Amino acid sequence: MEQEKKKVQENVPSLTPPMRLDDEWSRWLIGEWESSAESDLPGFKCWAKGTGRVKAELGVGGQFLVVTKQGEVAQLSDEYVQHLRQNMHAPEDEIEKLRKMKFAEVDYRTIDPRTGGIVAYLFDSWRCVATGTGTCDGNKEVIEWKWSAGGQGTSVRTTERVSEDKFVVTEKYTLLGGGTMEDRARMVRKK
Question: Within the chain, which residues score under 70 in pLDDT?
């Protein structure tokens, strides 16, 4: 009887939430950032460039770093537009929509209090949903993502701090058809 009681007590979760997220990386990232980015598709180096804004803040009672991104296409490569016209037979109005496309994303990131590893969730304006796990070591955070809903495949996002007011992000996607896509972004602190 006493052993059963002890087993039950060991399996009851704590009713006290962990301390607020207060790791050095999260504290540094909090603020507003301006971004510029470019993307490569198989056969199309720098097919698109974009610009945007990023806001990082603590949310959900201070337990998660919430990173909200808003962006838009700034330029499509002539080579990619030609491909859309000739090989994909895309109508001009669809190409024009792509040239003016806006996008958004929100990431929820925290640290697992049991393991110290990063746990992350992502939702974007293409109705993609991703779950991620990763590590942060000094000036570099690496998160491996598994995509579902509107997105498929996996990716690895590496975020590197360049200075107190700059960081770079490289994300390499493994697509279901076996191809890869790579995005590169530069962020500069605004606030």
Answer: 1, 5-10
* Whether this model's pTM surpasses 0.85: yes
Does residue 37 contact residue 183 with C-beta atoms inside 8 Å?
yes
77 vs 12: CA distance, rounded Å: 57
pLDDT at position 35: 97
Q: How far is CA 166 from the centre of its chain?
A: 17
